[in-house]
Specification:
The chain is mainly alpha-helical. It has one domain. It is about 65% helix and about 0% strand. The longest helix has 22 residues. This is DUF732 domain-containing protein.
Length: about 130
């Protein structure tokens, strides 16, 4: 078998695998479980007096049924530390410190309570170290 035929065969196999992967991947993050968690989160926001500018569908699309990047960051001490640095000094290159309102941190806490309650102690410690705008 010539090298050219081997390249064409490998390329065809990779192309078929790529097509199968694209067709079989589940892009629908708006599952019934995601919608139920989004509804619960919006109810928690309203119960705590926070604004809920997004619909259930929008929240379900962003957070899915696992909390997405919010829970990924909440479960990692390193990512919470990086977030703390970005808030405290204004990013990787010092611009100015960012002081957020307490409701931003309250929203973070509520998301973690609904989507990944196993990480709530990390988030509470993170929030306790923050300065709030009055």
């Amino acid at each position: 078998m010539s090298p050219k035929a081997i390249y064409w065969t490998v390329g065809a196999v990779l192309a078929v695998l790529l097509i199968v992967m694209l067709v079989s991947f589940d892009y629908d993050r708006n599952s019934p479980e995601a919608r139920a968690k989004a509804t619960s989160l919006i109810s928690s926001y309203e119960a705590n007096g926070l604004a809920t500018p997004f619909s259930v569908d929008q929240v379900a699309e962003v957070l899915g049924d696992d909390g997405g990047t919010v829970c990924a960051a909440a479960g990692s001490e390193a990512q919470l530390g990086q977030l703390k640095t970005q808030i405290g000094v204004g990013g990787e290159f010092y611009v100015r410190p960012i002081i957020l309102k307490q409701n931003v941190f309250e929203g973070l806490r509520l998301i973690v309570e609904v989507y990944c309650p196993e990480n709530i102690s990390n988030v509470r410690d993170f929030i306790a170290d923050q300065r709030y705008a009055q």
